[in-house]
Write a structure and sequence with these properties.
Layout lengths: L1 E2 L15 H13 L4 E4 L2 E2 L6 H14 L6 E4 L2 E3 L4 H6 L11 E5 L8 H10 L3 E4 L10 H9 L3 E5 L9 H9 L5 E3 L13 H7 L3 H8 L7
Parallel strand pairs: 1-2, 2-4, 3-5, 5-6, 6-7, 7-8, 8-9
């Protein structure tokens, strides 16, 4: 199993604050049967420093080489208008240095996600929409369009047990729209590693379960 969305890289965003927390989060991943973990620290228009992220990642690999897990680097990019230029320039990290990139949008300001992602797809990139359940302004038709045009959809594992997201999760499952799951873990408290409720629900949807349990394209 793969966790495609985490904030485990220490000391670079609002996620893990130090190596000790990072190791504990990785150990929780291992205990839950996760073999591959993608580290996706935040990047945005005002926070573009790939070298720092790469250096911190290299050090984390050395500090965790005793743990039975594969770590990969990427980022979670908060969408902004000139994002394409920075992506092409290598200032924004894609997932495991592939054409796939994890992107998030405002949860409050209505954003035409499909429209904004069209140019990226035409340019050969594959957007992975982070925690799509958090965007209440997206209609069922818009979500279907987003997926049909070539975007991938990621849902947070904790969302499966949260009442506000029950309706959208059910829609996504019924239409087999979930491509990836991610813990979006930040710490060892409220935003830790959790899979139980997610896997319990997914067992009722074998097609989606098989999809999220398979090794994703970005790691092949």
């Amino acid at each position: 199993m793969t966790d495609i969305h985490t904030h485990i890289l220490p000391g670079v965003d609002d996620g893990s604050k130090n190596l000790e927390i990072s190791r504990s989060l990785i150990q929780l991943e291992i205990e839950n049967g996760v073999k591959d973990v993608v580290l996706t620290p935040h990047q945005n228009e005002k926070n573009i420093n790939p070298d720092k992220l790469k250096d911190t990642f290299t050090k984390l690999l050395e500090d965790t080489k005793d743990l039975d897990v594969n770590l990969y680097l990427g980022s979670e990019i908060y969408y902004y208008e000139n994002m394409m230029d920075d992506l092409k320039a290598g200032k924004l990290l894609t997932l495991n240095n592939t054409k796939y990139f994890l992107v998030e949008f405002s949860t409050r300001m209505v954003t035409p996600v499909a429209e904004k992602m069209y140019d990226f797809i035409v340019s050969g990139y594959i957007p992975v929409i982070a925690h799509i359940e958090r965007f209440p302004y997206l209609t069922a038709e818009e979500i279907l369009e987003i997926h049909k045009m070539g975007c991938k959809i990621q849902v947070n594992t904790k969302a499966f047990g949260q009442k506000p997201f029950k309706k959208v999760i059910k829609f996504l499952l019924k239409n087999n729209l979930i491509d990836y799951i991610g813990t979006d873990c930040h710490d060892l408290n409220e935003r830790s590693v959790e899979y139980d409720k997610c896997l319990k629900v997914l067992k009722k949807y074998p097609e989606t379960l098989n999809k999220v349990m398979a090794k994703p394209e970005i790691l092949n």
